[in-house]
Amino acid sequence: MEVRNTMQLEIPAVPENVGVARLALGSFASQLNFTLAELDEIKVAVSEAVTNSVVHAYPEGPGPVVVTAEHDGRELMIRVRDSGKGIADVAQARQPSFSTDPERMGLGFVFMDSFMDQLEVESRPGQGTTVTMRKRCQAGQQPQAAAEEGSARSGG
Amino acid sequence: MEVRNTMQLEIPAVPENVGVARLALGSFASQLNFTLAELDEIKVAVSEAVTNSVVHAYPEGPGPVVVTAEHDGRELMIRVRDSGKGIADVAQARQPSFSTDPERMGLGFVFMDSFMDQLEVESRPGQGTTVTMRKRCQAGQQPQAAAEEGSARSGG
Amino acid sequence: MAEVAKGGTAVAIEQHLTGRTLVVRLQGELDLVAAEEFRREVEKALDQSGARTLLLNLSQVSFIDSSGLGAILGRYRRMSQQQGRVILVGAGAAVLPILELSGLLRIIAHYETEHQALAAS
Amino acid sequence: MAEVAKGGTAVAIEQHLTGRTLVVRLQGELDLVAAEEFRREVEKALDQSGARTLLLNLSQVSFIDSSGLGAILGRYRRMSQQQGRVILVGAGAAVLPILELSGLLRIIAHYETEHQALAAS
Ligand SMILES: Nc1ncnc2c1ncn2[C@@H]1O[C@H](COP(=O)(O)OP(=O)(O)O)[C@@H](O)[C@H]1O
Ligand SMILES: Nc1ncnc2c1ncn2[C@@H]1O[C@H](COP(=O)(O)OP(=O)(O)O)[C@@H](O)[C@H]1O
After folding, report:
1. Do chains D and C touch (3 or more CB pairs under 8 A)?
2. Most buried among A56, A124, C65, D27, by the most CB within 10 A?
3. How are beta strands D21-30 and D11-18 bridged, if at all?
4. What is the pLDDT of residues C51-84, one digit of tens each?
């Protein structure tokens, strides 16, 4: 992957910053030729990964979350990293409906998996968690999303 | 200012990333009690500062732009920093209509100045430029913008 | 139609009672922050109104994730316990696929319009 | 009304010719990236159409900054050179204050609707 653009966002793990990350990454992703539906999927995946760092990683108070991304015009890579408590059994955590929090749905990893082409979860208890996701777009010179939105609305 | 939230965004100085910064900072700013009009003003100010780093700072190819922000619930501070060629005469650069580029309007600093409560520009030729902007919002528990948007649309 | 409660920072929440149905119209992005507000506001309105049916209009929701789904599921559980029900209305292109994938539409009915939902309920 | 050109990544640009007026409807955020596209597409359409009046409909523009203004001013300069004119239409709450502050509205007319603009031109 010959990197064409990159970004790095560092935020404390508080709920309000999930939206900051989602919007930043949504805008970054729109530089590629994704459809509007695919951009929505990417936003969900980012939201889930950052929400996990906010909700699960730091029981003793918010630590840092670092979101990095890069793309080569064809493939988008997004990495969400925290230095929180980590996950003891990643395979179990990735199961549908598995959650250590009774108020939550246990669908975070399921959505990341469904909506991105590739999902990698690395975690060490006490060290933190790194989630890496990749998604490829159709070949093409121009991002599709803006054009779609245009034709969806144009009346004349 | 007792910091309640912070963020740091690092991006290469390419045009596509102006939108990434604007959306991230717009979302960050919406955590305070700004009106929709004030949020628009903040987005313009961010757009101008980052655009300047993209357009002027790195004639030899894109270097890094670092956008940091923090707020205490009442005041928002936004800092845009590049390590580019710098500005020899800052006072001149801040004049309305002054631009070193005939294609541009020379209104970037004017907009930052008009739309934020405070603007500070530090620059050293060959070292880079740092723009620091501050804006205070009305006292209040809750951000206004969402409620406004709600009542603007609510029909029943 | 009286307005029961209106709150919100991240989502705008508009509520009113029609018969024994609490109609809640959500607007914005239903993520972790919004889910928390939604939970708080709607619980308060349910307590006060004694509604039997909770109608959630999602037509102005531009984003939802598993935190938002969790908040809906939580209200579904509450209403089920008291022999009430939840109805969803108007989920759009950004929301419907998530509702489907989550399996929520297998337990909660979804209608295109409030009119259809109220007629059927 | 024939569509002359449609382009765009950041803004959606829709154009058609009505009489000797090129009507361009912009949509999205008119920043540095969009201004560049806008410049390219509209110059091409002006060259091809020989239009005397350029009508820019801004009603779907949700953001503009000095780069976007610069692109509009550039087209104004071109049209003025060839004795043509530029008309702006429908700038909303996020755009109008910027147009005013920049002084652009002192040299370019602004109407609320395309209908009004075409009637006046
Ligand atoms: N960043 C993280 N740090 C610590 N634990 C995590 C992290 N992400 C996920 N987990 C664990 O994995 C489980 C499953 O995650 P997920 O599928 O996203 O569901 P949910 O967030 O709804 O619980 C969580 O309940 C939590 O125990
Ligand atoms: N980050 C920067 N690096 C180098 N020069 C800058 C930077 N920001 C502004 N300048 C200089 O200051 C001038 C005025 O800036 P501004 O008011 O934003 O107008 P404009 O960007 O339209 O030229 C620019 O033309 C440029 O010469």
Report:
1. no
2. C65
3. antiparallel
4. 999 999 999 999 999 999 999 999 999 999 999 9
Cα separation, B71 vs B136, in Å, equals 9
B52 is catalytic: yes
Q: Of A21, A72, A39, give the one whose Cα is nearest residue A144.
A: A39
H or E element in which residue A130 lies: strand A128-136
How far is the C-alpha of B43 from the C-alpha of B20, rounded, in Å?
11
To the question of pTM greater than 0.90 for the whole model, the response is yes
Number of structural domains (chain D) is 1
For the CA of B99, the nearest atom of ligand 2: 25
C24: tokens are 């809640």
φ/ψ (deg, to 5) at B31: -75, -15
Gap between the Cα atoms of C67 and A55, Å rounded: 10
Buried b (16+ CB within 10 A) or exposed e, D39-56: bebbeebbeebebebbbb
C53-72 residues touching B, CB cutoff 8 A: 60
The residues, ordered by sequence, that sit 6+ positions from B85 with a Cβ below 8 Å of its Cβ are B56, B57, B58, B59, B125, B126, B128
Contacts of B116 (CB under 8 A, 6+ apart): B41, B42, B45, B78, B133, B134, B135
Candidates C30, C31, C39, C101, partner chain A, best to mutate (most A CBs within 10 A): C31
Q: Is the pLDDT of residue B132 over 80?
A: yes
Q: What is the ipTM of this complex?
A: 0.91
Choose the CATH number for A12-144 among 3.40.50.11210, 3.30.565.10, 3.30.930.10, 3.40.109.40: 3.30.565.10
Indicate the domain borders of chain B: 12-144
Domain CATH for C65: 3.30.750.24
